[in-house]
Amino acid sequence: MSLRPQEGPQERFLSTPADIAIYGGAAGGGKTFGLLLETMRHTEISEFSSVIFRRNGTQITAPGGLWTESTKLYPLLGAEPRTSPHAQWTFPSGAQVQMRHLQYDTDVNAWQGSQIPLICFDELTHFTRAQFFYMLSRNRSTSGVKPYVRATCNPDADSWVADFIGWWIDQESGLPIPARDGVVRYFTVVNDSVVWGDSPTEVVERAGLKSVAGLAPEALVKSATFIAASVYDNKALLDANPEYLANLMALSRVERERLLGGNWKVRKAAGSYFRRGDVDIIPARPTDVLVWVRKWDLAATEPSEASPDPDWTAGVLMGKRRDGRFVVADVVRARVRAADVRKMIQNTAKLDGKRVRVVVPQDPGQAGKDQAENMVGQLAGQIASSARESGDKETRAEPFAAQWQVGNVDVVEGPWNGEYFAELEAFPTKQAGIHDDQVDASAGAFAELQSDKLARFMAMAQ
Q1: CA distances (Å), 30 to each of 34, 152, 232, 284, 451, in order?
Q2: Among 237, 252, 287, residue at a domain's last position
Q3: CATH code at 97?
Q4: Given Cys at both, which of 12, 46, 231, 358 links 94, Cβ 3.0 to 4.6 Å?
Q5: In this structure, are residues 38 and 118 in contact, taking their beta carbons and an 8 Å threshold?
Q6: Which of 324, 360, 365 is nearest to 342 (CA)?
Q7: What CA–CA distances, in Å, run from 124 to 22, 32, 120, 322?
Q8: Assigned domain for 150 exists
Q9: Same domain for 48 and 102?
């Protein structure tokens, strides 16, 4: 069976002569498949070995991840798998490909003395600069294969990678410069600073390199390139899963520009998630709501001299309408003690009525589980449940923000509007006086309305 890269960026990635090649810069460009093909290039050489790194072990074995995809390719060359003590494939020649993680900076110490002809980083922006350059020192070989590095990534304006590939990126638009795509440049590192040039000679002159241990100064110079790719370059993916493009288009503004547009300059800043101009303010609650959810974000502190601006307890009432739109109908919030928080939740549930499902958060651990069960138990007569929250606040807000930005959310006019819009527009600003309790509650309510619990609740309500 013949295995070939797709024409375009993936083919250029697998043919570049650069010592270091970074590939991708957007979602869906066939990055992982490209890495796996690269690791198969020298597997007939018994001394050859390669390591593909992810930041944590879960990313290796996650559905659709490195391990899953490798099972579709490596057996074609007769490779045998092993998952303990780590993921590894051994080819008939004896060549090996390992899949490992570097979660902490200190994890690189386990690789002291290693010789790795091919080092691959899947999602390079997830790794620290220190991890990358330390592992670069392990990139050596006695197998006859010239040592080299291959990496994939998605844009991250705050990553060290954005600086490293800055020459290939338009610093105004944040987009890759087509004329520089795949162009090989040269660099060395002096006093922890990267010195670039268009040729090894230029780097030697700029860095003032001298001969070391009898080696010419050019031996201290590495070559590197960046090759941009996006979902539009991955015809195989679009043919098999045309809906993936729609998924990317449905992302919030910042994530859409990063993962679909390949923008290396866009950042998450105030107003990048929620702007009041993106939604309609309606005078009354609509009558075509199929299901209502009141989601709470809890706090239990009153303002005091020691803590003059504590977090708020916030409960957001959100509904899903018959036409698929969403409506934010009411927000209740207060800064009170734990006992008063419980009373507020109970009283609000009575006012909302039995058509509204009440959802309280469940913190990790047994204590959090016990607290959530106790609060649900105090809502007798209501349809109530608890929900665990995972991931960071920005990730949880993304799905709701995406619907907000395309105008699929209405907000009912009320005295709470001003504070609600102010908080959402400030998100994800992290500074004193800026809270995100209403954002968390809104994101949680939206998640509940999108979950399979919705269908069960609707069946119960009928």
Answers
A1: 6, 10, 10, 48, 30
A2: 237
A3: 3.40.50.300
A4: 46
A5: yes
A6: 360
A7: 8, 12, 9, 43
A8: yes
A9: yes
pLDDT at 165 over 70: yes
Cβ neighbours, 10 Å, residue 299: 18
Cβ contacts of residue 452 below 8 Å, gap of 6+? none
Q: Under a CB-based contact definition with an 8 Å cutoff, are residues 404 and 386 in contact?
A: no
- Shared domain check, 378 and 315: yes
Reading phi first (left if > 0) and then psi (alpha if -120 to 50, else beta), residue 182 is in: left
Give the domain range for residue 55: 9-237
- Would you say residue 268 lies in a domain? no
Pairing of strands 80-82, 87-90: antiparallel
Spatial contact of 232 and 8, defined as CB atoms under 8 Å apart = no
How many C-beta neighbours within 10 Å does residue 192 have?
A: 8
> Which tokens belong to 365?
């651990």
Residue 307: inside a domain: yes
CB atoms near residue 398 (< 10 Å): 17
Taking the whole predicted model, whether its pTM rises above 0.85 is answered as no
> What count of residues does the chain have?
462
Compute the distance between CA of residue 14 and CA of residue 71 in angstroms, rounded to an integer. 20
Q: Does 242 map to a domain?
A: no
* The two structure tokens encoding residue 424: 């959402």
Residues 312 and 446 in one domain: yes
Q: Which residues fall within 8 angstroms of residue 55, CB to CB, at 6 or more apart?
A: 101, 102, 103, 123, 126, 127
Cα–Cα distance for residue pair 31/27, rounded to 1 Å: 8
pLDDT of the residue at 421: 94
Express each pLDDT in 315-349 by its tens digit: 999 999 999 999 999 999 999 888 899 999 999 99
